[in-house]
């Protein structure tokens, strides 16, 4: 049975699958990334995991994988297949595509940025299915974005397209590790909400999920913290939709798990801010933590189905 390898590399864990031509998940597996062992060990672990998936496919489905797609964090030079930089994994300029191709008997390999790869899956088979233009924004430890155009995701000239988390929404505000002050992710990421709620509640272990529950119960301090984040998020999203004019705005990540506690005030806040802009549909992501792996599978099939279009790798 013809299939591809899909691998989503995270800071702590890796999710993998063998994916059939119709999108069927033929085999799934997970493994720790092992970053505590160092950058070289992480790369070796990825190569070993991919090789095991390759062998599994050949044994159980009668033929080896036809291609592989891999989603990785950090800065990714997708055109050249290089994991350019990932602070949490200690990477700098790792030629991951070539190393994987060599380990996997020469099959083609696509390398993609993790958020853009997840956005590809959400756009094609998830919450954005059928939308010709979408913006995928996961609200996790940080905030990133994926710009979807006609079934593909735009990487930009230098691989930085979609970095909505570093739109400055509060000039002169909280310092950001990127070097700016007042970036969106310093106010509206799950990490930022956790930090603000822990301080407001006086409980060091309190996090964004705790804040959302307190909001639902009517706690005024939680409501204040939550709405501060929602207002910042709405400011950043309106800037993005002014520039991009998406038909669908897909919100994912940890904060989106709050459901209507997030989406109801967020839709209202965006609606209040738009003037001439067209209001997109604002919907929750549909694929959860499987988006990156599913997107990696799409990258691999794109290599096989559209080999003349290198931009299909992101």
Summarize the entry for a quick read.
The protein is α/β, with parallel strands linked by helices.
Task: Walk me through the structure.
It is a single chain. The chain has helices at 39-61, 96-103, 114-125, 185-188, 190-201, 208-216, 220-244, 260-273, 291-305; strands spanning 3-9, 13-20, 25-32, 68-72, 75-77, 82-86, 91-94, 109-113, 133-138, 146-149, 152-154, 248-252, 281-284. Residues 309-314 have low confidence and may be disordered. With 314 residues, the protein is an alpha/beta fold. β9 (133-138) and β10 form a beta hairpin. The protein has two domains: 3-117 and 289-313, 2-Layer Sandwich (Nucleotidyltransferase, domain 5); 130-285, 2-Layer Sandwich (Nucleotidyltransferase, domain 5), CATH 3.30.420.40. The chain contains nine helices and 13 strands. The longest helix has 25 residues, at 220-244. It is globular and about 60 Å long.
Let me know the average pLDDT. 93
User: Stretches where pLDDT falls below 50 for ≥5 residues?
Assistant: 309-314
Tally the beta strands.
13
Q: What is the element string, with H for helices and E for strands?
A: EEEHEEEEHEHEEEHHHHEHEH
* Biggest pleated sheet: 5 strands, mixed
Radius of gyration: 20 Å
Quick one: overall form?
globular
CATH architecture title of the largest domain: 2-Layer Sandwich
**How many individual helices?**
9
SS class: alpha/beta
Any idea of the CATH class of the largest domain? Alpha Beta
Percent range for helical residues?
25-40%
